[in-house]
Amino acid sequence: MNLFARRIRGFRLVDLVALGLLMVIILGVYLAKTMAGRERAEIASVEKQIGGEKDRIRLLQAEVAHLEQPGRIERLSVTYLGLKPVSVKNEASVDQLIEIAHAGPPPKAVAPSAVAALVNGADVVPGVPPPAPAEAQPVRLAAAQPQAAAQ
Amino acid sequence: MSLGVHSFGRAGLPRWLIEKVWGLEHAFERARASGKVEDDTRLRIFFLLFLFALGFFGLAIGATRSALFSDAARGGGLVAPVVGARGDLVDRNGKLLAADLLHYGLYIDPREIWDPAETRRGLLAALPEVEPDRLERALRGNRRVFVVGALTPEARNRVNDLGLPGVSFEPEQHRVYPLGSTAAHLIGFTDSGGEGLAGAEGAFNSDIHTAAGAAAAPLSIDLRIQGALEDELYKAVAEFQPKGAVGIVTDVHTGEILGLTSWPTFDPNKAGKATDYARLNRAAASVFEMGSTFKGFTVAIGLDTGVATPESTFDATHPFYVGNRAITDYHATHAMLTLVEVFQHSSNIGTARLGEQIGPERMHAYFDRLGLTSPAKVELKESARPLTPRVWNEDAIASTSFGHGINVSPLAVVRAYGALMNGGYLLPLTIHKLEPGAQVTGPRVVSEKTSLQMLSIMRANVTGGSGKSANIPGLSVGGKTGTGDKWDPAARSYSHTKQVSSFAAVFPTTGGPQTRRYFVLVLLDEPHPGKLGVDPTGGIAAAPAAGRVIERIAPFLGVKRQTTLVQAIPVEQPSTEDQGEER
Question: How high is the ipTM of this complex?
Answer without folding.
Answer: 0.72
